[in-house]
Design goal:
Radius of gyration: 15 Å
Structural class: mainly beta
CATH topology: Cathepsin D, subunit A, domain 1
Order of helices and strands: EEEEHEEEEHEE
Number of helices: 2
CATH class: Mainly Beta
Strand content: over 45%
CATH architecture: Beta Barrel
Helix content: under 10%
Number of strands: 10
Length: 128
């Protein structure tokens, strides 16, 4: 049975930004956590604040060079996590440790049917 999830954009940010509620599990002994993440179709990968990765006991994978928005390369740490949206589980995502923002990138979005309705400030995710 399919499920349609609907989330309101965060209007506290200007311009308003699409966000989703996710559950994040680090495969360790810590309990999963729920958080709100910005939907960023321009981001190659998902980024999670480092303190949350520590809180869920996420497994460090490696460090890699990543190019940021302004084109500069920086060394970043990757952690293996499980992402759940609604009842849909993406079992293995290599999330980038970030200072303070949670972003869902194309590594997650490419697994989903996502509709952004900008004028209504609504994001819909169709789960099958």
């Amino acid at each position: 049975m399919s499920q349609l999830l609907t989330f309101q954009y965060d209007e506290n940010i200007s311009p308003a930004v699409p966000v989703v509620e996710i559950e994040l599990d680090g495969y360790g002994n810590a309990a999963p956590i729920r958080l709100t993440a910005i939907v960023d179709s321009g981001a190659d990968c998902t980024m999670i604040p480092h303190d949350l990765l520590e809180a869920i006991d996420a497994t460090y994978q490696d460090s890699m060079r990543m190019r940021g928005v302004v084109g500069d390369f920086q060394l970043v740490d990757r952690f293996l996590v499980r992402v759940t949206i609604g009842n849909y589980v993406i079992p293995a995502i290599y999330a980038i440790s970030h200072e303070d923002e949670a972003l869902i990138g194309r590594d997650v979005l490419n697994e989903l049917w996502v509709t952004l309705n900008g004028p209504a400030y609504v994001i819909e995710i169709q789960l099958d």
